Amino acid sequence: MPDIQKQEGQPGIAKAALFGLCPQCGAKTLFAGPARFSERCSSCGLDFSAFNVGDGPAALLTLVIGALIIIFALILDSAVRPPFWVHVVIWVPVTIAMTVYALRVSKAALLAAEHYNRAHEAGRDDVL
Questions:
Q1: I want to staple 46 with a disulfide (CB 3.0 to 4.6 A). Which of 15, 23, 41, 102 is the partner?
Q2: Measured between alpha carbons, how far is residue 1 from residues 4, 55, 87, 127, 128 in Å?
Q3: How far apart are CA 77 and CA 99, in angstroms?
Q4: CA dihedral of 61, 122, 41, 14, whole degrees rounded to 10
Q5: Model-level pTM?
Q6: DSSP string, 16-85
Q7: pLDDT tens per residue across span 7-48
């Protein structure tokens, strides 16, 4: 396991993920859209497109957030019995907001972890 030493000005993985910070310089330049990375950091020039985060977190987040929304909706329904349209008005925006924010945080955490661990795709030189 490589010895990971955080350099001056680098935010931790959690801080970079929660606030969309560049893992190298700490500038708030990681995202260009709600859950889309910028091409590169406008402050230090780190190329975000070189990292392979993918959509791995999306499936897990969909399952977890879906389960939470169903639990909360059932609790609300058993407590007050609102009409169906109230559920739609409440849970559709909450689901969208939770999914986008969780996807944003999880993708940023994966990118920051790749940067700190100097992760890269295996090649011929990496074979034992």
A1: 41
A2: 9, 26, 49, 16, 15
A3: 22
A4: 40
A5: 0.75
A6: HHHHT--TTT--S-SBSSSS-B-SB-TTT--BGGGS--TTHHHHHHHHHHHHHHHHHHHHHHHHH---HH
A7: 556 788 889 889 989 998 888 988 888 878 888 888 888 888
